[in-house]
Specification:
Elements: H1 19-28, E1 51-55, H2 62-73, E2 81-85, H3 97-108, H4 118-126, E3 131-136, H5 142-151, E4 158-164, E5 174-177, H6 193-205, H7 215-225, H8 230-238, H9 245-253, H10 272-288, H11 291-300, E6 307-308, H12 309-316, H13 326-335, E7 340-342, E8 349-351, H14 354-367, H15 370-391, H16 397-406, H17 408-419, H18 424-440, H19 444-455, H20 463-478, H21 482-499, H22 502-518, H23 522-530, H24 541-560, H25 563-580, H26 584-599, H27 603-619, H28 625-640, H29 644-661, H30 670-687, H31 689-700, H32 704-712
Parallel strand pairs: 1-4, 1-5, 2-3, 3-4
Antiparallel strand pairs: 6-8, 7-8
Helix pairs in contact: 1-2, 3-4, 3-5, 6-7, 6-8, 7-9, 8-10, 11-13, 11-14, 12-15, 15-17, 15-18, 17-18, 17-19, 18-19, 18-20, 19-20, 20-21, 20-22, 21-22, 22-23, 22-24, 23-24, 24-25, 24-26, 25-26, 26-27, 26-28, 27-28, 27-32, 28-29, 28-30, 29-30, 29-31, 30-31
């Protein structure tokens, strides 16, 4: 399964038990015929078959069960099963169904380029899809989650599986209470999922651990003390690295302190006894940690999504906790299952389960350190974003793209925390730097959202304001929002003149000229951008803006029909990008040159240039409209070379990208639309409609990885 089959995390530990619940969920989550009329004629959630909520307290295993159930029904959903994690919003200050729509779009990698509200754009994109959304951790945003889910009700083949401590309260919602794992009181193997889980996790920390006549009764006693709560069982099993099984049982049998009252629901609707074992076990695990381990646990709670050892050192060190001690203590917390290791990115990263993170956050508040640690968190990601901007126009662009995508949740948390603080200068800087990176990495909506908040404070002129204004206008251009682009073009030009910065003034032409080109006024765009001063390209973010400005001029020449000028300017941009090792802007120039090659009959060169453009987006892991345009161009080169079946497959791959971009297929550009239609007609004329449809669909169902690899594969093929 590829990326477009979903985003479920890879299995790092065996899944134990829950067979009855999985069987019920298998039935509840199977696709049906869509929404039906509910009371008052309103289209509802079809008797609960389209909205299922797993209910239970923290640590009961709702997320693991939801992910496992989703994994098992994945073949029934052609458009994938998608995990939308909401716990990262707990500390960000972001609320509202529109924000949930933005987070869901990011999870599904829907890069909608329109200015519609996020949830409306998502609803439009999923309207004809058959997919399953897993909304994890809804309880802290209950009303917003209900409103968000309700807005998606008209998508007839979309199912939702939610996890929450309380029900969403929507008509037709079907709830499944997640109970503790069973513990057989007699000590036999009749039903002892909790004991099986304990033994599995114990074997991971104590080599050779098995259940036998001697260990089984003690393991059963341990699990009874823990009421079969999965998280409590896992935390207790981790303690076997330092305690014997008998010592563990004795400790649990004498615990009376229940610190974790914060896990009880606010309205008291949940059974307090259900929380007792978990409160006891997490509180006990906390007390068994060394003092510095407890301090690190608390400080790690400020991270969103995940973190690496370097970030943990920078953010969590201070006072009695030296930076050099953090990696060792982090390993200790991982050995005790306080933090989870994640190797999916190739670099060791860590994350905390929500319940454990909540405990750490509560403890951080008790220590009176929350603001200080969050400030260090902000400063770390402020420096990261600043460095990313400074090096975006260099050979490190690929690494920065990967880093920005990996640390998106932490960057967003840092930006939002800053926007809620009185230091407006810091807020403007990090909003501008993070926004600049987000625009290039597929998060245009996030960039626009944070920049609008930062600019609403009417900040004073300066370099930070210049970057923020340019990025906001450039984001509007990527959305085709020409009026907003024109507004920010004017504001940016005014500030650039005040700063007396020739380089800044030269890149104002990108904002003012590009919006003219999008309006179909290419000759005016050429005239405006041609007079912009050409200066040596700088190494900072303005240098990236400089070469993008020159690239926009090349596109305007192409649209105005001046092919000679378009090629000359494109080659100028490509040479600068090659010298720097830059891929993002070079890919756009490669597409322009490929189109020029095809217009002049040089099919082989056109194919090479278009393939190079696609390869750049593959390196940047970009599923943007720019990648879709590159593959459309490659399809035109491919049919011109006589490879009709492959060209049809490429159109299918590109369409999948356009679908994910949402709302603006071929950018609503008459030239791009005409080129694609001409390509499709040529393919149909060569191989016929049935063969075209078959090959097109074969490309359309490819995953992102499969599609990009296929598009960049230059292995010679027979024509036809």
């Amino acid at each position: 399964m590829g990326e477009w089959s979903g985003n479920l995390p890879s299995e790092t530990r065996s899944f134990v038990g829950r067979q009855d619940e999985l069987a019920r969920l298998d039935v509840m989550l199977r696709p049906d015929d869509g929404p039906v009329e509910s009371g008052g004629g309103r289209r509802g959630w079809n008797g609960g078959r389209r909205l299922v909520t797993l209910l239970g307290p923290g640590g009961i295993g709702k997320t693991r069960l939801a992910v496992e159930a989703a994994r098992r029904v994945r073949p029934a959903y052609p458009d994938g099963v998608w995990l939308v994690e909401l716990s990262c919003l707990h500390d960000s200050g972001l609320t509202g169904p529109g924000t949930l729509g933005l987070v869901a779009m990011e999870a599904l990698r829907v890069a909608d380029q329109t200015t519609r509200p996020a949830t409306e754009a998502l609803a439009a994109w999923i309207a004809d899809k058959q997919l399953l959304l897993v909304l994890d951790s809804c309880e802290h945003l209950l009303e917003d989650c209900a409103a968000f889910v309700d807005e998606l009700r008209l998508a007839p083949h979309v199912h939702i599986l939610a996890t929450s401590r309380r029900r969403l309260g929507l008509p037709g919602e079907r709830c499944l209470e997640v109970e503790p794992l069973p513990v057989d009181e007699s000590g036999t193997a009749a039903r002892e999922d909790a004991v099986t889980l304990f033994a599995d996790r114990a074997a991971a920390v104590r080599s050779g651990f098995v259940l036998d006549e001697a260990t089984r009764p003690v393991a059963v006693s341990v699990c009874q003390h823990l009421d079969g709560i999965p998280l409590a069982v896992e935390l207790a099993a981790a303690r076997l690295s330092t305690l014997s099984l008998t010592e563990l049982d004795d400790h649990l049998g004498t615990r009376t302190d229940h610190r974790l009252a914060l896990l009880a629901s606010d309205d008291g609707t949940e059974d307090p006894s259900r929380h007792q074992a978990l409160r006891t076990t997490i509180g006990w695990s906390h007390e068994l940690c060394a003092p510095l381990e407890r301090l690190l646990w608390a400080r790690l709670a400020v991270f969103s999504g995940g973190f690496d050892a370097e970030a943990a050192q920078e953010v969590c060190a201070g006072g009695p906790l030296a930076a050099g001690q953090v990696p060792v203590l982090l390993d200790e917390l991982a050995a005790q299952s306080i933090v989870q290791r994640d190797q999916r990115t190739g670099t060791a990263r860590f994350r905390m389960l929500d319940t454990v993170r909540e405990y750490g956050a509560d403890w951080l508040g008790e220590l009176g350190e929350e603001d200080a640690v969050r400030l260090r968190h902000r400063e770390y990601y402020r420096r990261l974003a600043r460095d990313g901007c400074a090096e975006w126009n260099t050979g490190r662009q690929v690494q920065w793209s990967a880093r920005v995508l990996t640390d998106h949740a932490n960057l967003r948390a840092a930006v939002d925390w800053s926007l809620d603080r009185p230091d407006r200068r810091a807020a403007l800087e990090i909003a501008g730097t993070a926004g600049f990176l987000w625009r290039h990495c597929g998060h245009v909506r996030d960039a626009n959202h944070c920049l609008d908040r930062a600019l609403a404070a009417d900040p004073p002129p300066g370099p930070d304001l210049l970057r923020a204004l340019w990025t906001r206008g450039a984001g509007a251009i990527m959305q085709g929002d020409v009026d907003t682009a024109a507004e920010f073009g004017r504001r940016f030009t005014d500030v650039a003149r005040q700063q007396v910065d020739p380089a800044a003034l030269s890149v104002s032409a990108y904002l003012t000229g590009s919006q003219l080109a999008l309006r179909g006024r290419s000759a005016e765009a050429v005239g405006l951008m041609s007079v912009a001063t050409r200066l040596p390209v700088r190494d900072d973010w303005l240098g990236s803006a400089q070469i993008q400005t020159i690239g926009a001029l090349a596109y305007a020449h192409l649209m105005s029909g001046d092919h000679e000028a378009a090629r000359a300017v494109s080659e100028e941009v490509r040479a600068e990008c090659v010298r720097r090792g830059e891929h993002w802007t070079r890919s756009t120039s490669d597409v322009i040159v490929a189109k020029l090659d095809l217009a002049h009959g040089d099919i082989a060169s056109g194919a090479r240039n278009a393939t190079r453009a696609v390869a750049a987006h593959q390196l940047l892991h970009s599923a943007s409209i720019l990648a879709a345009t590159a593959i459309d161009t490659l399809a035109s080169a491919t049919i011109a070379a006589g490879e009709a079946h492959r060209a049809a497959e490429l159109l299918g791959i590109a369409q999948r990208l356009w679908d994910r971009a949402g709302g603006r297929t071929q950018l609503n550009s008459p030239d791009l639309i005409a080129a694609r239609q001409a390509c499709e007609r040529a393919i149909r004329d060569k191989i016929g409609d049935p063969a075209y449809e078959h090959s097109y669909e074969a490309g359309r169902v490819m995953s992102y990885e499969q599609g990009m690899s296929y598009a960049t594969d230059t292995t010679p093929r027979a024509s036809g």
